[in-house]
Amino acid sequence: xxxxxxxxxxxxxxxxEGFYEPEKQPTFAEHHMLSGxxxxxxxxxxxxxxxxxxxxxxxxxxxxxxEKARDLVEGKDVLEIGAAAGVxxxxxxxxxxxxxxxxxxxxxxxxxxxxxxxxxxxSMIPAQTSLHVEGYKWGAPxxxxxxxxxxxxxxxxxxxxxxxxxxxxxxxxxxxxxQQTLKKSPDAVALVVFTPYQPWLLPKIANFFPLAEExxxxxxxxxxxxxxxxxxxxxxxxxxxxxxxxxxxIRWAKEQL
Length: 257
Hints:
Pfam families: Methyltransf_16. This is Protein N-terminal and lysine N-methyltransferase EFM7. Keywords: Cytoplasm, Methyltransferase, S-adenosyl-L-methionine, Transferase. GO terms for molecular function: N-terminal protein N-methyltransferase activity; protein-lysine N-methyltransferase activity. Helices cover 26% and strands 23% of the residues. By secondary structure, it is α/β, with parallel strands linked by helices. It has one domain: 3-Layer(aba) Sandwich (Rossmann fold). The strands form two sheets. The chain has a seven-stranded mixed β-sheet with strand order 5-4-3-6-7-9-8, sandwiched between helices. Helix 6 (171-181) links the parallel strand 6 (158-162) and strand 7 (189-194). The longest helix is centred in the middle third of the chain and has 13 residues, at 108-120.
């Protein structure tokens, strides 16, 4: 029987050159701490959940945490959800948190990237601090997260939620995670920072805060800060809003304690 190439079919089942776009390679970004230290983090090459970006809210959250480290992180247990590159988690670990858990959607590329960033920052983290990485889907059971906490801990002192509430369809799951993980203490706080990259969705995004209040929390706006440039240059909408980061602290309402 003749071989396929003898019949002129040798290239029939081969993709033409350039048929697929080359896979984007990982990139790196730097975050400059107030202390003068520099974090260099790896970003995945391309990802539908935007793990290939160092988000403005992540940078600003990190600076806020560093500025208020004595109250927010020193000796505390910290959970970050939607961490992407994990800069706020790493800063919390460097600034002396007791336990830090860096989480994002349980996707192999995202989780492995977080692990690499945690590993590369290890020399900057005090020996008494434990930094862990875990895949976690918002609203899912939290027992795997609590397994990392020291004996006797009943929840997390600080939740870091940087640029996660833009996903307005996930608000109920985010609230559920807050309810299940934030320690029942007047000092425990969720730091929620976001930028309305799509300004026309701002009313839906901002609806997270009344929903939080209806769910047993007290919401306090703590800052409004404009960055030098927009993250997505070609997006439409009000540029001032797309350059503005809004920061909120969310705590348990008094009647919930």
